[in-house]
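[recover] target loaded
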C-alpha cells in the first residue's frame, strides 16, 4: 500500500477483522493478526515485545495508566504493526475504564511529517514519559504513607502498602520488556528485510527513550525500597506497641504477685504462725498488701515502666 494512499500513522480502537484487513499489508504473520484481534483480559496482560516478520515489524506494548480516583494502576495494551510506509496501532478498551488516548503524540507525528520508524519512536517516547509520571505518582503515594503511618489504622495502612506493592510489581513486569524492546532497535536486532526502518537519526532518538525507561526502572527500584522502609517502620511500630502491652501486663502481674504471696502465706492454716493470735492480724495483712503494692508502683513509675 503506497504512503500517499493515507496517513503514515493509522490508529484503530477495538477493530474487527474487516477493519484490520483494510489497513494492514497483504502478508501479515498469523500470530500478529490474532494478537491484534484478541480481547484483552484483566490480569492477563501480554508481555511487551518487538518482532520482525519480513517486510513488517510487529510489537505489543503495555501502557500503565494511574487512576487518581481509585489510586490504582491499570495497564492497557497497544498492538503496533510497522511497515516501510505505514504504522498501524490497535488500542484495546480495558475491561474497566476508558482506552488510552494517543491524539497528542499522533498530532505531533503528523505535524512533523514523521516516517513510520519515527512514529514508532514517538510512541515509545510517550510510553516512557508515562512510566516516569507513574513513578512520580508512586513516590507521592509513599510520601503520603510516611506522613500518616502513625495516624492510620493498622488494617488500612497494610491494605494501602499491599496495593502499592502490587502495582509496582505489575509495572516492573512490563517496564523491563519495554526497555529491552527499545534496546533491540539500538542494537539493530529488529529491521525490515532489505530496508532500513531505523536510520541513525531515529536510533539516536530511541536512545533517548531508552534512557528514560532506564530512569523509570531506577526510580521504580527506589520507590520499592522506600515502600519497604515504610512497611518495616510500621512493623517495628506494631512490635513496639506489643512490647508496651506486654510491659504493662508484666507490671500488673508483678503488682499482684506480693499480695498473692501474703494472702497465701496467712492462708496456710498452720499453727506457729507469728501473727496467728494477733488481735490486729487482719489489718496487719492488709497493711502489708497496701504498702508493698504502693512501693512497687513507685518503683515501676521511677523506671518509667508505667
Amino acid at each position: 500500500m503506497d504512503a500517499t494512499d493515507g496517513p503514515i500513522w493509522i490508529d484503530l480502537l477495538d477493530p474487527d477483522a474487516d477493519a484490520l484487513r483494510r489497513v494492514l499489508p497483504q502478508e501479515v504473520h498469523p500470530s500478529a493478526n490474532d494478537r491484534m484481534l484478541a480481547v484483552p483480559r484483566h490480569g492477563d496482560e501480554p508481555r511487551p515485545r518487538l518482532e520482525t516478520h519480513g517486510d513488517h515489524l510487529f510489537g505489543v506494548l503495555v501502557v500503565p495508566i494511574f487512576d487518581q480516583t481509585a489510586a490504582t494502576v491499570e495497564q492497557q495494551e497497544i498492538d503496533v504493526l510497522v511497515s516501510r510506509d505505514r504504522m498501524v496501532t490497535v488500542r484495546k478498551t480495558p475491561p474497566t475504564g476508558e482506552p488510552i488516548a494517543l491524539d497528542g503524540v499522533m498530532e505531533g507525528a503528523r505535524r512533523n511529517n514523521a516516517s513510520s520508524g519515527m512514529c514508532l519512536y514517538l510512541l515509545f517516547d510517550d510510553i516512557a514519559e508515562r512510566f516516569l509520571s507513574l513513578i512520580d505518582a508512586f513516590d507521592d503515594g509513599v510520601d503520603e504513607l510516611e506522613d500518616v503511618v502513625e495516624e492510620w489504622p493498622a488494617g488500612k495502612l497494610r491494605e494501602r502498602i499491599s496495593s502499592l506493592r502490587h502495582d509496582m510489581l505489575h509495572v516492573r513486569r512490563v517496564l523491563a520488556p519495554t526497555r529491552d524492546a527499545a534496546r533491540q532497535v539500538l542494537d539493530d536486532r529488529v529491521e525490515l528485510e532489505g530496508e532500513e526502518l531505523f536510520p541513525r537519526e531515529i536510533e539516536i532518538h530511541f536512545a533517548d527513550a531508552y534512557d528514560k525507561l532506564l530512569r523509570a526502572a531506577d526510580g521504580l527500584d527506589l520507590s520499592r525500597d522506600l515502600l519497604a522502609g515504610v512497611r518495616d517502620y510500621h512493623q517495628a511500630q506494631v512490635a513496639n506497641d506489643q512490647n508496651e502491652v506486654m510491659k504493662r501486663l508484666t507490671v500488673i502481674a508483678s503488682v499482684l504477685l506480693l499480695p498473692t504471696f501474703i494472702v497465701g502465706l496467712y492462708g496456710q492454716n498452720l499453727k506457729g504462725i507469728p501473727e496467728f493470735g494477733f488481735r490486729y492480724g487482719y489489718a496487719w495483712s492488709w497493711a502489708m498488701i497496701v504498702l508493698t503494692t504502693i512501693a512497687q508502683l513507685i518503683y515501676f513509675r521511677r523506671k518509667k515502666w508505667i
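[recover] notes: The chain has two domains: 3-239, 244-302.
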